[in-house]
Amino acid sequence: MESSDGVKVYVWNMQDLASLSSLQIEEAPLEPADKEEDWLYRITYNPKDKVSNSEEITVSFHRDYIQIGSEFYLAKQGVDYDDILEWAKSKHEYLVKEYGAE
């Protein structure tokens, strides 16, 4: 997992990121207007530089949406997207503390 300020951490225990599946998001009907590089937090599963013969999947947290691979997701109605960003921020801070930054 990494933040846009360049702080990166490698995590080998997938349970530390299991709660990603609990985020209340739904597929977005339209592609967002900002650039793909404008992410705040990013999780790369099975990074090519660490895991061979596996599919790399990137989850990017942007200011208003989440991108998983080439698909875009928004918070479900009634869900505050700022809470999702706070989850990503706190998860990143925890993982850096637990595993150390690269």
Protein topology:
Blueprint: E1 2-3, E2 25-27, E3 39-45, E4 57-62, E5 66-68, E6 71-75, H1 81-99
Antiparallel strand pairs: 1-3, 2-6, 3-4, 4-5, 5-6
Task: Give a short synopsis of this structure.
With 102 residues, the protein is of the alpha+beta class.
Helix content: 10-25%
The total domain count is: 1
N- to C-terminal distance: 10 Å
Radius of gyration: 13 Å
Total DSSP helices = 1
Determine the strand fraction and express it as a percent band.
25-35%
- Which of globular, elongated, flat, extended, rod-shaped describes the shape? globular
Name the strands of the widest sheet in spatial order. Answer: 1-3-4-5-6-2
Structural write-up:
It is a single chain. With 102 residues, the chain is an alpha+beta fold. The chain has 1 helix and 6 strands. It has one domain (2-99). The chain has one helix spanning 81-99; strands at residues 2-3, 25-27, 39-45, 57-62, 66-68, 71-75. Strand 5 (66-68) and strand 6 (71-75) form a beta hairpin. The longest helix is centred in the last third of the chain and has 19 residues, at 81-99. It starts with a strand and ends with a helix. The mean pLDDT is 88.
Task: Give the key terms.
alpha+beta; globular; 6 strands; six-stranded antiparallel sheet; 102 residues
